[in-house]
């Protein structure tokens, strides 16, 4: 049950599809608006401040990929890429640019609704993820984790490394928080997928691996000699304290 109406912006130039999605989501108590051009979408996003954007790739004036890339520095909501292309490279590109999820057209309305609900549930992630094992961060409170020079602040959703703020997308921060609050524990892809996105990993979605890769780059973590996020072959991922990585 939503405490207030959540806002969704559809950026799609197919009038029929956009109206169908808008009607369907409106019937499920979302406040839905539609915009059909890519080159003016960012202004609409700034004004509307939606909780989630359903973003088509092929748009007049500017592509959805370019929009996704350009709004990462200031947009705090979720981005669901939607495209008619069956090429997997579109999925990879969208996720690498910071999209939170991806759906190929034609879209089944119930699946779209399930993905939207799963994304918006991320706002409810809280101190449930605080680790209860004997392996702890150097400093830990409900909203602050400190691992040497790496500081993760859940309250303002900021991450700093060596006193420099790291620019993370919403999805990247949620994944980092999940890993860091389970420091010393191996989390499988299934664990991560179900915790972060709200439904089970189906064995084919590569979004977790793509997000891990982006996190490593932003945290200056060498995948061949990790100091933060270690791949445990056949099992999943393990977040390390710096002193445990030597």
Radius of gyration: 18 Å
- Please summarize the sheet with the most strands: 5 strands, parallel
**Strand elements, count:** 13
Poorly predicted runs of 5 or more residues: 125-139
Task: Give the spatial strand order of the biggest sheet.
Answer: 2-1-3-4-5
User: Can you tell me the overall shape?
Assistant: elongated
Helical content (DSSP H or I, runs of 4+):
25-40%
Strand content: 15-25%
Helix-and-strand structural type: alpha/beta
Distance between the termini: 46 Å
Mean pLDDT: 81
- Report the total helices: 8
Q: How would you spell out the order of helices and strands?
A: EHEHEHEHEHEEEEEHEHHEE
Oligomer: single chain
Task: Give an account of the 3D structure.
With 246 residues, the protein is of the alpha/beta class. The chain is built from eight helices and 13 strands. The strands form three sheets. The chain has a five-stranded parallel β-sheet with strand order 2-1-3-4-5, with helices on both faces. α4 packs parallel to α8 and α6 packs across α8 (207-218). The protein is elongated. It starts with 6 loop residues before the first strand and ends in a 7-residue tail after the last strand. The model is unreliable at 125-139 (pLDDT under 50).
Draw up the topology in text:
Layout: E1 7-11, H1 15-26, E2 31-35, H2 41-48, E3 52-56, H3 64-70, E4 78-83, H4 88-96, E5 101-104, H5 109-120, E6 139-140, E7 144-147, E8 150-153, E9 158-161, E10 164-166, H6 170-180, E11 186-187, H7 189-197, H8 207-218, E12 229-232, E13 236-239
Parallel strand pairs: 1-2, 1-3, 3-4, 4-5
Antiparallel strand pairs: 6-7, 7-8, 8-9, 9-10, 11-13, 12-13
């Amino acid at each position: 049950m939503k405490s207030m109406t959540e806002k969704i912006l559809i950026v799609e130039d197919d009038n029929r599809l956009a109206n169908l999605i808008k009607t369907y989501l409106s019937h499920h108590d979302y406040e839905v608006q539609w915009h059909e051009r890519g080159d003016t979408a960012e202004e609409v996003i700034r004004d509307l401040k939606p909780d989630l954007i359903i973003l088509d790739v092929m748009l007049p004036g500017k592509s959805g990929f370019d929009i996704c890339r350009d709004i990462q520095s200031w947009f705090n909501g979720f981005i669901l890429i939607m495209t008619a292309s069956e090429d997997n490279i579109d999925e990879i590109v969208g996720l690498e640019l910071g999209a939170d999820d991806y759906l190929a057209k034609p879209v089944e309305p119930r699946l779209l609704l399930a993905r939207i609900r799963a994304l918006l549930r991320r706002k409810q992630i809280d101190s449930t993820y605080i680790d209860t094992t004997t392996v702890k961060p150097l400093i830990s409170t409900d909203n602050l984790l400190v691992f040497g020079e790496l500081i993760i602040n859940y309250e303002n959703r900021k991450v700093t490394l060596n006193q420099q703020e790291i620019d993370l997308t919403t999805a990247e921060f949620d994944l980092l928080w999940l890993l860091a609050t389970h420091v010393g524990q191996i989390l499988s892809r299934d664990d991560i997928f179900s915790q972060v996105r709200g439904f089970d990993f189906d064995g084919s979605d590569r979004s977790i691996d793509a997000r891990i890769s982006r996190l490593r780059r932003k945290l200056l973590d060498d995948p061949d000699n990790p100091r933060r996020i270690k791949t445990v072959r056949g099992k999943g991922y393990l977040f390390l304290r710096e002193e445990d990585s030597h």
